[in-house]
Amino acid sequence: MIRTVATKPYDDQKPGTSGLRKKVPVFQQENYVQNFIQSVFDSLEGFQGQMLVIGGDGRYFNREVIQIALRMAAANGFGKVMVGQGGILSTPAASNIIRKYKAFGGLVLSASHNPGGPHEDFGIKYNASNGGPAPEKLTDRIYARTKVIDSYKIAEFADVDIDTVGTFEAGGMTIEVIDPVADYAELMESLFDFAAIRAMFAGGFTMAFDAMHAVTGPYAVEILEKRLGAAKGTVRNFVPLPDFGGHHPDPNLVHAKDLYDLMMSAKAPDFGAASDGDGDRNLIIGRGIFVTPSDSLALLAANARHAPGYAGGLKGIARSMPTSGAADRVAQKLGIGMYETPTGWKFFGNLLDAGMATICGEESAGTGSDHVREKDGLWAVLLWLNILAARKEPVKAIVEKHWAEFGRNYYSRHDYEGVETERANALISGLRAQLASLPGRSVRGLTVETVDDFSYLDPVDHSTSSNQGIRVLFQGGSRVVFRLSGTGTSGATLRVYIERYEPDAAKHGIETQEALADLIAAAEEIAGIKAATGMDVPTVIT
Predict the structure, then answer these.
(1) Degrees (nearest 5) of the Cα angle 58, 138, 314?
(2) H or E segment and range at residue 428
(3) How far apart (Å, rounded) are the C-alpha atoms in residues 146 and 75?
């Protein structure tokens, strides 16, 4: 039985950088979930009888939304749904399932690295048939539909048992509950030299992986401990919990401080890593050294040839605009294309589909390749392990040799979270008003060379994305970037990215914040951050 239910639109369902993210109580409002899912389906064409993939990161409200989505998929005419056992599918695993089984698309239920729980964050995003996040033209259609929606369709059937692997019928639709790990693990084994990594672990190599009680726990246990032979207990906090154990599942130096402290101690294992809520981000720490995401992207690209899946070389590298220029120098040496895009993994999709790029990365701890169309935390960890097995050197030595060859990009991101939206917008507007007057100005001993509001022309579909962040470039190659984030659920997050390029190896040992001190002061003088945000210091420094 299919019902058509009358509803009224909500005015706050505009998808952000990666889907719709709000607090759980917002999603729990009457028909809020149904309105958005129906708006997604109403914005698609040609899916009758086709397959949809559904899964999420196991956060609070995940199971309830899956049951709603299954009933609505049946009512709207999908022929089959594949859903991860227990409602679990990491974001990169969902992308792989969509691609491998040629699904029409997928609903990924996650708020990524944001906290979970009854009063915390939830999210829904649609991924297209290439396995990647919906492009802007589709999310714009979805948002337009949410503003006028007046009904949704839903089938009447009992809750589906999503904890048991198997196939059955409901609402005239086939539902297949799948092992969420098997297909992903098989893909990883096809890309990396598991035999060499196994031998490294067998030879005494040690590692700590913090799954942060998030979705990568089952994936990491299966791959690292069972298939690669890492010691039992290598994977910590491996049981996905609806509230991530009360922690913030963001793999940075603030929220993964225990791992950082371990890696800086006398008891440090050889390698430390972590992933986030939905498994698409990563943290890499060697014994005695934190590898910034920007540096990690450059190092992975420079050494990818050590992995069988990339032995033939890279087609190109892509990075988000705020990510440091470290990868640019690798691309130049390799003689391959380098692409600078707005923030948001969806912007890499066209480059990957067109065969123009192989490895992509963002300073926000996301790296990935053309194996899926999402960033992939565990993939980055495994590529690092493959490189370590091949080079037989510690992380610190590999990083320092890279800096000596390419120069070091000192880099930091200062986040000001929960800023009143009006005040955050006023800060950006004030910067835009200075675009013409800043060039040539001396600020804290630094001379401003150029200023712009980043705009991106997609080389594949020729679409334009404007107002993507204010870039202040100084003579000598240093820069400061100001941008409002689209991944939060309340207020606004101001991100300030600070970067200095240092070619002199004798100056590569300076503490990062010290090396960037004059740029940090210049950013304050130019933007008036303290006055605009009401904060004396950033909420998070990475």
Answers:
(1) 75
(2) helix 421-432
(3) 18
Radius of gyration for the alpha carbons in the chain, expressed in angstroms and rounded: 23
Output the six-digit token pair for 522.
């210049």
H helix and E strand count, the chain: 18, 27
* Those residues with Cβ within 8 angstroms of residue 462's Cβ, 6 or more apart along the chain or in another chain: none
Cβ contact 290:260 at 8 Å: yes
Tokens 């200095």 found at:
500
CA atoms within 13 A on the CB side of 431: 31
3-state secondary structure of 365: coil
Work out the percent of the chain whose per-residue pLDDT is above 90.
Answer: 94
pLDDT tens digits, 335-350: 999 999 998 888 899 9
Where residue 288 falls (left for φ over 0; alpha for ψ -120 to 50; beta otherwise) is: left
Q: Could you give the count of Cα atoms lying within 13 Å of 467 in the half-sphere of its Cβ?
A: 8
Structure-block tokens of residue 524: 């304050």
Helix (H, G, I), strand (E, B) or coil at 466: coil
Phi, psi of 19 (to 5 degrees): 95, -170
Asked if residue 489 has pLDDT above 80, the reply is no
What does pTM read for this prediction? 0.94
For residue 54, pLDDT over 60 is answered with: yes
Q: Which residues contact 271 (CB under 8 A, 6 or more apart)?
A: 205, 206, 207, 208, 285, 286, 287, 384, 385, 388, 395
Q: How far apart are CA 480 and CA 380, in angstroms?
A: 27
pLDDT tens-digit map of 434-458: 999 999 999 999 999 999 999 999 9
Which of 528, 522, 341 minimizes the C-alpha distance to 429? Answer: 528
Catalytic residue among 39, 43, 95, 112: 112
Q: Which residues contact 261 (CB under 8 A, 6 or more apart)?
A: none
Catalytic annotation present for 112: yes
Whether residue 37 contacts residue 15, with contact meaning beta carbons closer than 8 Å, is answered with no
- Grouping H, G, I as helix, E, B as strand and the rest as coil, residue 36 is helix
Q: Which of 365, 395, 405, 381 is nearest to 289 (CA)?
A: 395
Provide the pLDDT for residue 115: 95
Answer whether 246's CB lies under 8 Å from 212's CB. no
Asked whether the beta carbons of 255 and 247 are under 8 A apart, the reply is yes
Q: Please tell me the distance from the alpha carbon of residue 395 to that of residue 250, in angstroms, as a whole number.
A: 22
**CB of 256 closer than 8 Å to CB of 212:** yes
Cα torsion at 518, 521, 523, 528 (round to 10°)? Answer: -170
Contacts of 422 (CB under 8 A, 6+ apart): none
Give CA angle at 492 (488, 497), nearest 5°: 90
Extract the tokens encoding 269.
């294992």
Largest CA distance in the chain: 73
Tokens 């100001």 appear where? 482
- 3-state DSSP: the chain helix, strand, coil percent, rounded to 5? 35, 25, 40
Q: How many CA atoms lie within 13 A of 157 on its CB side?
A: 21
Distance CA 277, CA 217 (A): 10
